[in-house]
Amino acid sequence: MSRRHHRNDRLTESEIEAIVLAAIPLRMAIQKCFISLKPFNETYSLLHHHVAGLDAVLERITGRSLDYRSRDLGLVPRRDG
């Protein structure tokens, strides 16, 4: 039987990496939807709010600032080799 997660449990590095790797394509897909929307309509505002929330969660769990110039937001460690 698996133990129940508590609020003060910490994520492992592999769990953080899995979350980031799943969140980046989701974020990019949401932003592609922006192209077909007019600014300041309800759907645009809702999507913008969710992307901002996702960014805040990513910053919080990784402990790093997002680098919007980078394809992976500067969150995925570079692998040499």
Automatic annotation (TrEMBL):
This is Uncharacterized protein. It comes from the Bacteria.
